[in-house]
Queue: 2 jobs
Job 1
Amino acid sequence: MSDLSKPKSENIVWHAETVDRARRAEAMGSRGAVVWLTGLSGSGKSTIARRAEELLLARGVHAYVLDGDNVRFGLCRDLGFSPADRAENIRRVGEVAKLFADACVVVLTAFVSPYRADRDAVRAMLAPGSFFEALVDTPIELCEARDPKGLYGRARAGLIADFTGISAPYEAPLAPELRLPTADEDIDACAARVLQALAEAGVIS
Ligand code: ADP
């Protein structure tokens, strides 16, 4: 893959903004942030992200979900599940999430994002206090019992290569801002934890 750490062309110049983040935050009613849900397939990332989005919208906060499967139908449709493709998937989503946060939207991302280095790279893109890493902490046995997309059965049968937790690694965050224990707490309680963390950090009031 080509060097993605800098632009390919040298003939581009950054255009400075005339409306700054503070003015946008005033207009939007919140300063925006990225809530990065990470965890095994079936752990509950999409479900919690959608519920948190509903709760935020009900409070008048601009919120939006970026979902792992959904971006692979468009933005990332050229990528698979090798470590290099997973890294590029997360880099692109991180850049999109950063734009949303800059637009003062609370963006909730639901990606397995199994590699610590890839998640840390996204964290490094964002201003301190704008990135909330949320570990959706569900034992693999429970994910497998839920198997909402029938993927564990297929992976166990050897029909899916590079399946996180079975034939590919998952590196849990070492110090996540949030831990969502879905074996012990229901969907509403987990979503409420997300809003509580955003409120405590002053992202929402
Ligand atoms: P992921 O996005 O991590 O692959 P999903 O959100 O698609 O996982 O699926 C999680 C499944 O687990 C759903 O069927 C959901 O209803 C169920 N579930 C049970 N308890 C919880 C909980 N506390 N939080 C999130 N999901 C839960």
Note: Helices lie at 21-28, 45-58, 68-71, 83-102, 116-125, 140-146, 151-156, 187-200.
Job 2
Amino acid sequence: MRRPIVAGNWKMHGTRDSVAKLIKGLRDLALPSGVEVAVFPPSLYINQVIEGVGKVIAVGAQNSAIEPEQGALTGEIAPSQLADAGCKLVLVGHSERRQIIGESEAVLIRKFAAAQACGLTPVLCIGETLEEREAQKTLEIVGRQLDSIIDALGIEVFANAVIAYEPVWAIGTGLTATPQQAQDVHEAIRKQLAAKNAEVAQNTRLLYGGSVKAANAAELFGMPDIDGGLIGGASLNADEFGAICRAAGN
Ligand code: PGA
């Protein structure tokens, strides 16, 4: 059995004050014991969140450096520093970083490897744009993004990684993939992993992300290959986030 994960990606949101309020809201939640819960605050607030939320909620970083260890790399944070702060996970390849910042596959491969070298679990985000979906290229694009990591680092790296399928057209738009649309892609991802290693495919958690909220979470998480969610906007509201976590526990 794969243990579901619900992860909140706070993106570039928050102030010391709003983060303190969100921490308090998270502490007050009744979380289901069978679900792994994580939040990804802006790096500036990682220490505050780790001190605030206790051990029940894991904390991850939204980004980390291409090099594992600290050194001369202005503006970056080494995965070893994140691990030292108490982080457990790191997002790699979120579409906002691929598209807006322009992170290349070569950079993502280095970030993924550096994070794992420091004991962090990479959450690899993959997904197609609306244009690509309309051109019926979804599986090709997602397959290529996944293969880029497999070809460079080997299938075994997914024994300690999570994959998040996030259709770009569904992120922050209020448009959600239907449970069946999401399931179809998740099933294809799992088959692609299985072609290389059946055990890794069986055990790897595949999260769905893109306008997940309490109202649609249960239906999405009910699909056989959807093992939880990566939640953006709705994770900034503790009660809403808690309801999504409970949906993953049912
Ligand atoms: P959203 O974001 O839930 O606000 O659509 C998801 C994400 O980008 O991880």
Note: DSSP finds eleven helices and eight strands in the chain.
